[in-house]
Amino acid sequence: MLDLSRHQRYIKLRTEAEKKALAEKRKAHKGAYNDALADAQDLVMQEAVKLREQFPGRTVEYHFEAILQWTHTKQKSRKPTRWNAFLRSEVKAMNAGREPDE
Fold first, then answer.
1. What is the pLDDT of residues 68-87, one digit of tens each?
2. What single-letter DSSP state applies at residue 100?
3. How far apart are CA 51 and CA 18, in angstroms?
4. pTM, rounded to two decimals
5. DSSP states of 14-77
6. What are phi and psi of 69, to 5 degrees?
7. Fewer Cβ close by (within 10 Å): the C or N end of the chain?
8. Are 45 and 64 in contact (CB under 8 A)?
């Protein structure tokens, strides 16, 4: 008969003092991180305001989002692959044989 039960793991039990110390450490780290994040967002917002003054056609929020999304936007075009070039030529050949009204 197969034993399908799970293996037991060793769990280190912490005392109440250790739990409190860990909780305080986590709370301090989270607060420091949130403060640093807020400072970084303030800097980005200042740059967005500068862009708004330089290019008044868009809102500050637009420039803020554009700065944040810059790494995700397409920055450089890529060469077409052989497959895409082949497909393009095939579609052109198919379309050349069709009537304009089809």
1. 887 766 667 778 899 999 99
2. T
3. 50
4. 0.55
5. PPHHHHHHHHHHHHHHHHHHHHHHHHHHHHHHHHHHHHHHHSTTS-HHHHHHHHHTGGGS--S-
6. -95, 5
7. N
8. yes
The label of the residue with tokens 């409190």 reads 20
Long-range Cβ pairs for the range 55-63 (8 Å, 24+): none
Residues listed for the chain = 102
pLDDT in tens, 24-62: 999 999 999 999 999 999 999 999 999 999 999 999 999
Distance CA 36, CA 30 (A): 10
Q: Could you tell me which residues come within 8 angstroms of residue 58 by beta carbon, excluding any fewer than 6 positions away?
A: 52
3-class DSSP state of 13: coil
For Cα atoms 85, 88, 92, give the angle at the middle one, nearest 5 degrees. 140
